[in-house]
Amino acid sequence: MFGFSENIKKSEASESYSSSYSFNNKNKKKDKKSKKKYENISIETLYPKSKINKEFDVNSFNTNLLDIENFDTDKLIKERENREKKLKTVYKKLLGTCLHKIQILNDRDETDMVYNVPQIYYGFSKYEPFDCLTYIEKKLRKKYLDTYILSETKIFISWKNIEENKKIQKELDN
Fold first, then answer.
1. Residue 157: which H helix or E strand, with range?
2. Are 84 and 126 members of one domain?
3. What is the DSSP-derived secondary structure letter of residue 108?
4. Angle formed at CA 103 by CA 102 and CA 105, multiple of 5 degrees
5. What is the helix (H) or strand (E) element at residue 115, kind and residue range?
6. How far is residue 157's CA from residue 147's CA, in Å, rounded to a whole number?
7. Is 110 inside any structural domain?
8. Which residues span the domain enclosing 21?
9. Residues 14, 80: one domain?
10. DSSP assigned state of 160
11. In 15-44, which positions are buried (b, 16+ CB within 10 angstroms) versus exposed (e)?
12. What is the mean pLDDT of residues 33-54?
């Protein structure tokens, strides 16, 4: 009886070996086909010569793509100014949310808060949270609120002494 079970185990092992062998042979065939596909990829196949795609070589990167006479520096300046304006509108938007939160907390008889600005702002690579906080701080101090920047993204705001701050500022102006 012991010998019978050994024969079964040997036959199962040989079947699993033969099935794995055939599986591996199929994968090898697929690998050969995929290698043929990748052998056909080259610069010429990716960028064939045409009116739009001229001959592709190392020197093609160094050619002037823009006509020098049509290059406009004023356009560069306008694009930079537009980006700065858009960034300023982001700062104004965050100031608006800060003022809205102050109003809500004031309605609850609270006089202090910590406001967080986002670490990054999607779509604005030049956005800096600390610059945004200094902008918010400057605007809030003009409205006689006490501010203290806690970190790169947090500012403490208090309107507890707003009447006193207003009186002091009027005295300094006179």
1. strand 154-158
2. yes
3. T
4. 65
5. strand 112-116
6. 5
7. yes
8. 2-46
9. no
10. T
11. eeeeeeeeeeeeeeeeeeeeeeeeeeeeee
12. 63
